[in-house]
Amino acid sequence: MDPGIIFIILLLLFLIVMFIIEPIRIDIIALSIPVILVLTNFWTQVSPIEAISGFSSSATITIGSMFIISAGIEKSGVIQSLGKKIYKWTGDSDIKLLFYIILFAGITAGFINNTPVVALFIPLVMGIAKRKNSSPSKFLIPLSYAAMMGGLTTLIGTSTNILASDILLQRTGEGFSMFEFTHLGLLVLFIGAIYLLLIGRKILPERIKPEVEVTEKFNVGKYLTETIIREESSLIGKTVREAKQQMDFELDIIQLQRSGVKYFESFFNKTLQVGDHLIVRTDPKNILQLIKTHRMEITKKSPTRESLYSKEESQNLVEIVLTYGSFLEGQTLEEVNFLEKYDCTILAIRQGEELTHKRMGNIILKAGDVLLLTAGKKTIARLRKNRNFIVSSELDDTEYLPSKVVTSLAILAGVVLLAALNIVPITISSLGGVIAMVVTKCLKPNELPEAINWNVIFLLAGLIPLGIAMDKTGTAQFMASQILRLEGILSPLMILMVFYLLTVIFANLIGNNASVILMLPVALDAAAQLGLNPLAFALAITFAASSAFLTPMSYQTNMMVYGPGGYKFQDFLWTGLPLQLILLVVVPLFINLFWGL
């Protein structure tokens, strides 16, 4: 075997392990690839220009542009307005609500990148479920799955489609057209919708009970205690800040109550008096020390949303979700000075099924993590406007701007039509859409960098040169030849299913875009060696990469609903496995029917 092939295979295995264990952020791992390829170019044959070609790739530019266009549509408030209509249409029926979620998330994800679609729908679904006294756990995985399948209805529905089209264009001279696979995508969405409505909703558990109060949902009652300053307490005459410093154990003071008035933001310099109530967060084992050492009395009632709410300071409990690409990913609250920056108090953090109430400042955060915090109206408004967070505890009250809705949707339609009619390539039409968003004031110039999910851009820029190395070293051809040893045993359709299955496995482990870059060159070489239709193999890889339902880390939208739904890892496995098996058969069969092998 050629040394270059051996090196690339070892590099692929190393990257797969790194993507699974994720010792550092995946986009940073990806950015190391161009450096490695150039330093080892005596094996990889990759030049410095080729190593950085991912940054100038038409796929990278198009995906970045579509993020901006999606942001312009989002800012118009059209999705929020739609959510309020869904609430009225569904009445008390959970199955109607599920139907509308699948319908509108699926359709919308075909034209707006599916990641921001899920980001917009999470607070809508959480708010509607709360008002209907339904469990959000019954709706959030279906929301993610619907957006994933809806993204397969057009070229611009997901970054995976655009990336696959770019690779296909470079290898065969012709990429996907705008509506190349729309009929197959709609079929997948229809099958997925039927499955979720009839079977999936019965499999999904109610991880978050509909009637549970938010303090109970996050189990903060165990760690929040209301205390009273007694006459003999050593804390009398000290400021709240001094009192906290005097306690030699981990404790946070959440609220000061005095004569019926509740203080949140500006109580640290207030001097403690007899009869003051302090709501504190600490481990239950420290409560006895509070009583003995500081002569404090513990009330029998547990703090609730109402007791933590302050009308005077407009304080309330709120849940925020970290979006995919949030600046907090891979960092701790202390590192970014979060509490001081946003003037709030963190009560609990949910990471998937895990709840944390202690030493939260040292927890490394990931996309999909949910933070329960107390904050004022101004802070909540800031968080809502910040694309790094989703305020998920209530329906958004974003103002609906009809003129901006018409303008932003017209710009999107222009982008789609120009590309669909082959007047200009999608890269140029999407860049034109970005300019139009600014000219029409749907977005301000300084909002453009914030609209782009830089994690995805850096991931693609780092991974694209790996595809070049696989081609130049012959690794893709070698891997294809190994799979084609099954040629004498399996029919061409079965081989297509094998590629679909392998891509699904990789996508569930290392993500959609990485699996496309790994598997598409191999599939195209296999098609060439067999004399089969390369478009059919490209479509199988594309659909498989965006249909990875089995793990929360397989797709960014799965990660985004993981925490808000309170899901366990196995919820994705058991809910997604039947659908995964259905599509494993259906997609290759209809690719053969529509395009032929």
| Helical proportion, percent range | 55-70%
C-alpha termini separation: 31 Å
Number of helices: 28
What's the average pLDDT? Answer: 86
Strand order of the largest sheet: 3-2-4-1-5
How would you describe the shape? elongated
Q: Note poorly predicted spans.
A: none
Q: What fraction of the residues are assigned to beta strands by DSSP? A: 5-15%
Rg calc: 26 Å
**How many beta strands in the DSSP annotation?**
10
Helical/strand content category: alpha+beta
Largest sheet: 5 strands, antiparallel
What's the gist of this structure?
The chain has 597 residues and is of the alpha+beta class. The protein is 58% helix and 9% strand.
Write structural notes for this entry.
- InterPro entries: Cit_transptr-like_dom, DASS-Related_Transporters, Na/sul_symport_CS, RCK_C, RCK_C_sf.
- This protein is 58% helix and 9% strand.
- The protein is α+β, with helices and mostly antiparallel strands and 597 residues long.
- Among the domains are: 1-76 and 404-473, no CATH class; 214-308, Alpha-Beta Plaits; 318-391, Alpha-Beta Plaits, CATH 3.30.70.1450.
- The strands form two sheets. Strands 3-2-4-1-5 form a five-stranded antiparallel β-sheet, with helices on one face.
- Helix 8 packs antiparallel against helix 9 (114-131).
- The protein is elongated, with a radius of gyration of 26 Å.
